[in-house]
Design brief:
Layout: H1 9-21, E1 28-34, E2 41-47, E3 52-57, H2 66-81, E4 103-105, E5 111-116, E6 121-122, H3 130-147, H4 165-178, H5 188-210, E7 214-216, E8 225-228, E9 234-237, E10 244-246, H6 248-259, H7 277-290, H8 301-322, H9 334-352
Antiparallel strand pairs: 1-2, 2-3, 3-5, 4-5, 6-8, 7-10, 8-9
This protein binds 2-acetamido-2-deoxy-1-O-phosphono-alpha-D-glucopyranose and magnesium ion (MG).
Length: 356
């Protein structure tokens, strides 16, 4: 019996077409959009024969070289799933097309991928407490550790200069200069905050980038983990398109940036914002329990969170100026709120940072 689907029939048809490309012929029984990410569109799909898949329409604007993503993820998928070696953390297993491709195309030109669903797991929205923080950070630390044994040379850069702090400063400058929608006059304070913080953190950001020696996730946040719904334990790392050479400090920094505060990334009211020191310490300890930083990296740990907060803040602010073309928005001013939250967070992290 085919149950009702939760998406429009046109979407359901497209999802069916994608699954057929992976030789999954059973009709779709249910398809539920998975929210969260700003970039791709994702559905959890159950077929009539009870197969569970996650199907994703890829954003080729953001990832201009989807073949680089495909090649990287194939190698990572092989590392985790071929050869029988079990790691304490895994990734969802990718489906392959008849010609052994990871990606599939529909006649409308869209590009897709599909994985087997990791059952009884879901992605947390945010970090609840220190224990969960430590477990999440351990998972990303393990992921980066496993990637150290990836055979075959460095992964390809899927988004060039993704964590190039100086370039993000320049990008914001260009957006300001163009001021395409005349929004600059309304955000003088935020532009000032961005400039001050960027000056302060340019040095540490450069030092962190100098340690970009291994493949890391590059977008390490709890929302990119799958955790067991019953126990909360982290089981799989997802959202692997940015996994490429980088610095493990960037992963730790992104975990801190996305997990440290008690308010949402797009909070409008920052009055209640607090930085949760216990969570930050747990993130640091958890990550270090699974990944060994080198001697040049250790003194930079305290800057990792602030650098990533300001980097993201500058990206949000540039996108606000550019008319919200990169980060999907659901309301006017959302990217501005995201930027304000990041700058305030960076200030708080720097202010309380010596307590580590
Ligand atoms: C994007 O879509 P999501 O949430 O996984 C972005 C990250 C940002 C994040 C901010 C490829 O990630 O770099 O930190 O939004 N990913 C890309 O919420 O740009
Ligand atoms: Mg994501």
């Amino acid at each position: 019996m085919v149950a009702t689907t939760d998406v429009a029939s046109a979407t359901s048809e497209r999802l069916r077409g994608v699954l057929r490309a992976y030789q999954v012929d059973s009709p779709i029984a249910a398809a539920v959009p998975l929210g969260g990410g700003h970039i791709h569109r994702t559905w959890s799909v159950t077929t009539a024969d009870a197969g569970g898949y996650v199907v994703q329409e890829l954003n080729s604007q953001v990832f201009g070289d989807l073949s680089a993503c495909e090649e990287n993820i194939r190698r990572i998928d092989d590392l985790f799933h071929v050869g029988g070696q079990q790691h304490e953390i895994t990734i969802p297993r990718h489906l392959r097309t008849e010609t052994d491709g990871l990606h599939a195309s529909l006649p409308d030109g869209s590009t897709w991928r599909a994985t087997h669903r990791v059952e009884r797991c879901s992605a947390p929205h945010d970090v609840v407490d220190a224990d969960e923080a430590a477990d999440a950070a351990r998972a990303f630390g393990r992921f980066a550790s496993v990637l150290r044994i990836l055979p075959g040379g460095p992964l390809r850069a899927t988004i060039p200069r993704f964590h190039d702090f100086g370039w993000r400063v320049d990008q914001l400058g260009e957006a300001l200069l163009a001021d395409r929608l005349g929004r600059a006059s309304g955000i003088r304070r935020e532009l000032g905050d961005a400039a001050t913080l960027a000056d302060e953190l340019r040095g540490p950001a450069k030092a962190i980038a100098a340690n970009a020696t291994h493949a890391v996730h590059n977008d390490a946040k709890v929302a990119n983990l799958l955790c067991d719904r019953a126990t909360g334990a982290a089981r799989a790392v997802v959202d692997l398109d940015t996994t490429m050479p980088g610095s493990a400090l960037v992963d730790l920094g992104e975990l801190i940036r996305s997990g440290a505060s008690n308010v949402a990334e797009d909070a409008h009211d920052l009055e209640p914002m607090e930085v949760r020191r216990a969570v930050i310490n747990a993130l640091i300890d958890g990550f270090r329990g699974a990944y060994e930083f080198g001697t040049t990296e250790t003194p930079l740990i305290r800057y990792a969170g602030p650098v990533l907060a300001v980097e993201n803040g500058m990206r949000f602010l540039a996108d606000h100026l550019n008319g919200d073309t990169y980060f999907r928005v659901e309301r006017a001013g959302q990217n501005l709120d995201r930027a304000r939250t990041q700058f305030r967070l960076a200030v708080e992290l720097l202010r309380t940072g010596d307590v580590v």
